[in-house]
Hints:
The protein has helices at 29-36, 78-83, 85-88, 164-173; strands at residues 5-7, 9-10, 17-20, 48-53, 66-67, 74-77, 92-95, 97-98, 106-111, 114-115, 125-129, 132-137, 139-140, 150-153, 160-163, 178-179, 183-186. It has a 6-stranded mixed sheet. Strands 5-6-9-7 form a 4-stranded antiparallel sheet. Strands 3-4-8 form a 3-stranded mixed sheet, with no helix packed on it. Helix content is 15%, strand content 33%.
Amino acid sequence: MINKVYYLKSDMVNYCSFIQNYPDGEESIMGRSRDQGWRRFGNDYTEISLELRSNDFGKKNYQFDFSSALSPFFVFSESGANHLFDILNPRGQFLGVRTASKRKKFIGYYPTNVLSECVDKEKSIYTEYPKGFMFEKLILVKNNITDEYLFSINENISGVFVTDKFRKLVEKIGLLCFDFSKEIELS
């Protein structure tokens, strides 16, 4: 049974994160991911170049396991991806990324596990747009969440969610940079 749901996001205050370094005229991975509509990238995907962004204290290092700065495209350390492989692999797609790190490897991840009928439209506050909803207040229907770890919803073009079971696993493993402070209300 699912008791809590959180936005999948990283702690960008205390930890560094990645931003994309892309040439003029090329669409960002954030835009390309949103355009995918939770469908897998095809064979035309090319490895993206990532640049390290300092934390809010001005420090720059690769001492983190997760970055959500490019959501709905995420970056995991190789170690983090290996620890969570059995959860992540059936729910999304691993994609190549390039970083300047000499010692630590990172990999991109795009979720493709989309659920339907999860938004409580009567209690949520939102504006509907052609590609999805913009939520001022999102409330999910607890009984319609059929995944016990990680999912996206078809009404939201960029929101990815994780359950308390996912949070407990990440905390048990000791992966760095996850932020579970944004809990989603359930009805």
